[in-house]
Design brief:
The chain is of the alpha/beta class. The chain is built from 33 helices and 35 strands. The longest helix is centred in the middle third of the chain and has 27 residues.
């Protein structure tokens, strides 16, 4: 390439951003048989390379950058960074992009060199800002200057908070810390942002730009790197700062720099806007006018460094580098990194290796290794020294040393800063691997370093996404804008996913947004999510409106479930049997769809209540019942099918048998403890009754409402109660609280049916074998049948009986008698000559004496302590157990089993107690619950129907003839208490031993 070509071949295409200059240069290059284009960034070089490959094929295009070299054998078009452009290769067309970079202190002298010396055989194009026109006219007076106008308008939009920036915005800051902070804020408020900085590797920057370009995120947070040739779909550019550190000092941006960055807004013919973020001073009117008109101060001076270098010696090279330009539009560039490295090597032993022009030229080539890590000059100088020493001493770099440096970088773990540092390091070795003749196996090291850099870049990209992008949110936002996207996917657990991202869960008609770390203001996110799931919710409403009854259930928590998902809950209605349904739905379900769901659930609930509680509902207004019967039926309906009998005892007494028969036709059963509907005791009606009762009394969430239905369903007949549960809930569930246990109502009536005939039985007059459980004095003993029925025994069963009003008499059992002892009573009879009746009287007398001296304890729980009796030393005593055994006999409440005169009478009055049942008492007690009176001549033990007009007084039966003192006032009998008599027995008689057992104090 030569600068002496005809003037008509040199063109300067100048103008603001978005004028199509780069596109024009590509078209012109491809119009020739060969060409080369120099670009300011490796990132932009890769973008242009891909576009050219799409046009002419991969085999015709070469890519040459400082860290990448793709050179097919028959390459005709070369896409390069400006620094990597081959200057000795003739091509038809040469294009240099962003020539205004020639004013940069670090790289400007390279661009100046290409402006002055890079030429194509047929055509040379210089693309850049319009500010370059005056200086180009001075340096290249024969060049043709072509001005291209901006294709779209650029206007100032004022100041907005970062969280209020419009979509498709680029927010510009000038430090990594500031970029990260803004990206974090946008993630919390708007779903995420892509990050573009000069410190990122080209591959990472490409991936971040694609993240933004694809629409996955709507915001880009960047440094001024976006102002250099990147073609982005940006609608608005917001400046978060107006100063930058340029490597030497912190200074305000120039209007031209503002214009280069703001010009990224708008693309092709679409207009763009620019502004500032909150906390940044608004732009002055003068600056706004410059930016909108693209009118900036022209460039007057370019950075320059001599390219005519003298490699005779290091000193000669130094002097040539220090040469001054001969044109007033050029100024000597500040000392660059490569010159600092040269000075460092020249001062150490490696400098002595540069003995001739070839070695000095090699030294200068090594010194041009970029300092990607931005480390100290001394540290960078040591690396350059090692590189040059190996090349001079070995002819190539030590492979073990290179392997060690590369291996240190081959680690993709760590945070963003760690990965960024490793990428900067590996870029150094990638640059080294792409130098000619520096390595024994350059191909291997190019592939190795490229692979490591790619993997590190990909890992950094993922880390940036994890930190600054909520992909779920970005997907939702895109779905909100693009109705053509796929519908959300819903799995069997109700999880809603969109493009593989979990956005929340849906149950029934309610959507719950999945939370993620750092979620901030989720209004926009919620709106996007609701929009995505709204069609599914409407479809569900349509399906529920026509759903069969079998798909809807009511749970113990009072909630209606459709296909297992909660769609509504019960709320209190105007009547206990008429609750209302509250549909549980989001705002997505409104209007006619919501009304149809409400009507369907209400219809199902009415059907469910009428089906499960039909017998109960029918008792509210029975047509064939009047008076007290109608009142009892109404109360039974209000109490949901179970009514304590004592609550309506007086009304029940007034019912005749015909009325009761009518009530039985309604399914009503008159039990000893409850009046109830047996059909309503099934688990399903009881569960519904509990829910309905709880709605009116304490709420569904109170203890017991959710647990009791499971107990009912289990079939348990009794269980221990929970003190925290309202006792009324046990009754609604179909149980009666008896002591510390709850007993099922129907089981309690069956227990009463077992006990009733036992306490009505007189063991003395009964003929035949006594039934199990029968006891003297109209009492009863607990049987296996009773305990099996209730599923408990021992003290638990005793507590139930005690709570029902029964009282127990516990007496020690007589010790076992040895063989032959059973004949002792007969022998005693022969010896004493007493009749059996007299012996029975003596036994009763013994009982009376024992009870008078040591009364038997009446208790509900516990074991009565009995002192061991001292008896005559016999073989039977030796066989007695260590622990005394007790005989437990239970009696109805109010019964005095110790009163021998009323033992027979107790049998007659047992049915008036708790065990009355269907055959309730018929006047056996008066209204004050006093004991019945008997007519003169009536027998105490006479069967029912023989008590009046019976045998004469002398035929009355007593346990033993007694004498009474009738001297009292009025001559009435029983006025004075009976006198106690002390019976006397033969000491060897068994009756004496029995008396000693019952009355230990007699000794």
């Amino acid at each position: 390439m030569d600068a002496s070509l005809p003037s008509q071949s040199l063109k300067a295409v100048l103008g603001p951003t978005n004028t199509g200059k780069t596109w024009f240069a590509i078209e012109r290059m491809l119009a020739h048989s060969s060409g080369m284009i120099g670009l300011p960034l490796r990132l932009l070089a890769r973008e242009v390379y891909n576009r050219v490959v799409d046009r002419v094929g991969q085999q015709a295009v070469a890519l040459v950058t400082g860290e990448e070299r793709i050179v097919p054998p028959r390459a005709r078009y070369w896409v390069c960074t400006v620094e990597a452009m081959p200057t000795d290769m003739p091509v038809e067309c040469v294009a240099i992009d962003e020539v205004q970079t020639a004013i940069d202190f670090d790289r400007g002298h390279i661009f100046t060199n290409r402006i002055l010396h890079a030429r194509g055989i047929s055509e040379t194009l210089l693309m850049g800002s319009a500010t370059m026109a005056p200086v180009i006219r001075q340096l290249l007076p024969h060049a043709e200057i072509i001005h291209r106008p901006r294709l779209s308008a650029l206007t100032y939009a004022g100041s907005r908070k970062i969280s209020r920036q419009p979509e498709r915005s680029a927010i510009v800051a000038f430090s990594a810390a500031q970029v990260y902070a803004i990206a974090e804020l946008i993630r919390r408020e708007r779903g995420g942002a892509a990050v573009v900085m000069g410190a990122l590797s080209p591959r990472t920057r490409n991936a971040q730009v694609e993240l933004y370009q694809s629409g996955e995120v709507d915001f880009l947070v960047a440094t001024d790197a976006i102002g250099m040739g990147l073609n982005l779909d940006v609608h608005h550019v917001a400046f978060a700062d107006d100063t930058k550190f340029d490597g030497r000092q912190t200074r305000p941006l120039t209007p031209a720099e503002f214009g280069q960055i703001a010009g990224r807004a708008g693309r092709h013919v679409r207009n763009g806007t620019f502004g500032v973020t909150g906390g940044t001073d608004p732009f002055e009117e003068e600056l706004i006018a410059q930016l909108e008109a693209h009118d900036f101060e022209p460039v007057k001076i370019l950075q320059w460094r001599s390219t005519e270098l003298d490699f005779a010696s290091i000193d000669s090279l130094r002097r040539s580098l220090d040469s001054t330009p001969r044109h007033r539009a050029l100024t000597r560039a500040p000392t660059a990194v490569d010159q600092i490295a040269l000075e460092f090597v020249a001062r150490n032993e490696a400098g002595r290796l540069a003995t001739d022009a070839k070695s000095v030229q090699l030294l200068w080539e090594v010194c041009q290794t970029p300092d990607y890590r931005d480390i100290s000059p001394a540290h960078h100088g040591e690396i350059v020294t090692r590189l040059y020493s190996d090349l001079r001493k070995r002819g190539f770099l030590d492979p073990d040393w290179i392997a060690e440096q590369v291996r240190f970088c081959d680690n993709i773990s760590g945070d963003i800063d760690t990965l960024s540092n490793r990428i900067r390091q590996i870029r150094t070795w990638t640059f080294v691997a792409n130098r000619k003749n520096w390595l024994e196996d350059p191909t291997h090291w190019r592939e190795t370093t490229r692979d490591i850099e790619d993997r590190l870049s990909d890992a950094l990209h993922e880390k940036l996404i994890q930190r600054f992008v909520d992909r779920r949110t970005s997907v939702l936002i895109r779905h909100l804008k693009d109705r053509r996207m796929v519908s959300p996917q819903i799995n069997d657990r109700g999880e809603v996913s969109l493009e593989g991202h979990l956005i929340g869960t849906i149950e029934g008609f309610r959507f719950t947004l999945a939370r993620s770390d750092g979620d901030g203001d989720a209004k926009g996110l919620r709106a996007a999510a609701d929009s995505a799931v709204a069609p599914e919710i409407r479809n569900r409403a349509e399906r529920l409106s026509g759903a069969p009854n079998e798909e809807i259930v009511l749970a113990t928590d009072g909630r209606l479930r459709w296909r297992g998902e909660v769609v509504g809950e019960l709320v209190e209605g105007d009547h206990i049997l008429r609750p209302r349904v509250l549909v549980l739905a989001d705002e997505s379900l409104t209007g006619p769809e919501l009304e149809r769901v409400q009507d369907r659930l209400g219809l199902w609930l009415r059907h469910h209540v009428n089906t499960q509680l039909e017998p109960i509902a029918a008792l509210a207004e029975p047509a064939d019942l009047d008076g007290a019967a109608r009142g009892i039926a109404f109360q039974l309906s209000e109490h949901l099918g179970i009514l304590p009998r004592q609550a309506v005892a007086d009304e029940v007494k007034g019912l005749d048998q015909d009325v009761r028969a009518k009530m039985r036709k309604h399914g009503i059963k008159f039990g000893a403890y409850h009046i109830y509907l047996p059909l309503s005791l099934k688990p399903a009606p009881r569960e519904l009754a509990l829910v309905l009762y709880a709605l009116k009394n304490g709420g569904i969430r109170q203890p017991g409402v959710a647990d009791l239905p499971h107990i009912v369903l289990s079939g348990r007949t009794s269980f221990e109660i929970d003190p925290a549960v309202n006792p009324k809930l046990y009754e609604i569930a179909g149980f009666k609280v008896a002591g510390k246990r709850a007993v099922r109502v129907d089981i309690l009536e069956r227990l009463a049916d077992i006990i009733r005939p036992l306490i009505a039985l007189d063991a003395r007059t009964h003929s035949g074998e006594l039934p199990p459980g029968a006891a003297e004095a109209n009492g009863f003993r607990v049987t296996v049948e009773m305990t099996s029925l209730l599923g408990c025994a021992g003290e638990e069963f005793a507590s139930i009986l005690s709570a029902l009003g029964y009282r127990v008499r516990r007496t020690p059992k007589a010790p076992a008698v040895v063989e032959g002892a059973a004949e002792a009573p007969a022998e005693a009879l022969l010896e004493t000559g007493e009749t059996p009746e007299q012996i029975e009287s003596d036994l009763v007398a013994v009982d009376e004496v024992a009870e008078a001296e040591a009364p038997v304890e009446e208790t509900t729980l516990g074991v009565a302590e009995a002192a061991p009796a001292e008896t005559v030393a016999t073989d039977a005593e030796a066989a007695a157990p260590a622990e005394p055994e007790f005989d437990e006999v239970w009696f109805p409440a109010g019964r005095r089993p110790d009163n021998r005169r009323h033992n027979n009478h107790a049998r007659q009055g047992n049915a008036a107690g708790e065990g009355a049942g269907e055959g309730e008492s018929r006047g056996r007690r008066d209204n004050n619950n006093r004991k019945p009176r008997f007519e003169k001549g009536q027998r105490f033990d006479a069967p029912r129907g023989e008590r009046s007009g019976g045998a004469p007084r002398e035929e009355r039966r007593f346990d033993k003839p007694r004498k009474f003192d009738n001297a009292g006032k009025g001559g009435k009998s029983f006025d004075r208490p009976r006198e106690k008599r002390e019976p006397t027995f033969d000491p060897d008689s068994p009756f004496a031993a029995l008396l000693a057992l019952k009355n230990p104090k007699s000794e």
